[in-house]
Amino acid sequence: LAQINNYEMLLHDAPTDSIKVEAMKTLSGKWYELGRPAIAGHYAYEIALLDPVEQSWSIAGTTFSICVQRATSQELKDYCTTKAVNAFENAISVNPDNVDHKINLALAYVENPVTDNPMQGIQMLLQLQENYPENVGVLTNLARLAIKTGQFERALERLTAALALEPDNTIANCLMASTLQALDRNEEAGDYVKKCNQ
Predict the structure, then answer these.
(1) How far apart are CA 168 and CA 198, in angstroms?
(2) Which of 25, 66, 158, 198 has the maximum number of C-beta atoms within 10 A of its C-beta?
(3) How far, in Å, CA of 126 to CA of 7, rounded?
């Protein structure tokens, strides 16, 4: 806390934006280490406001997404979702061609569905699959969601497509191992388990 207070004072007295950004980067990192992604996200978001480049918005969105996953109250979850969505939308506006930002935006809605449109995140991912049928990130995230809902055959189909594109993709190999084990195809799962462990 003493370190945090020192950086807060540095931030308060910072004569230039670049010094403010450095102080906020440290504060964001410290709060993240302390297990407070909402506060870490606040500083990451403030950095993006001062330095509105693609990477800054992406880091802010990712930090708030972690907050959404770890939030212990619905109020905090909703706050972090709103901030994550806004940050990823800004990242997309800076670089509309980066599919990862679009995936992360969809996942923010998946983690905390909107009451009046609970399928919004899934629909966004399905639209991304239609637009980018050979994007491994889209395929693996849809497979992960299929596994969560017990749709193992659908997961298998998406992971087969992902691994045809990137045979050494760790996430796809780990998910494939889990999927085959869930389908009692343990012998087939063996090779994927090895690649996953590597």
Answers:
(1) 10
(2) 158
(3) 44
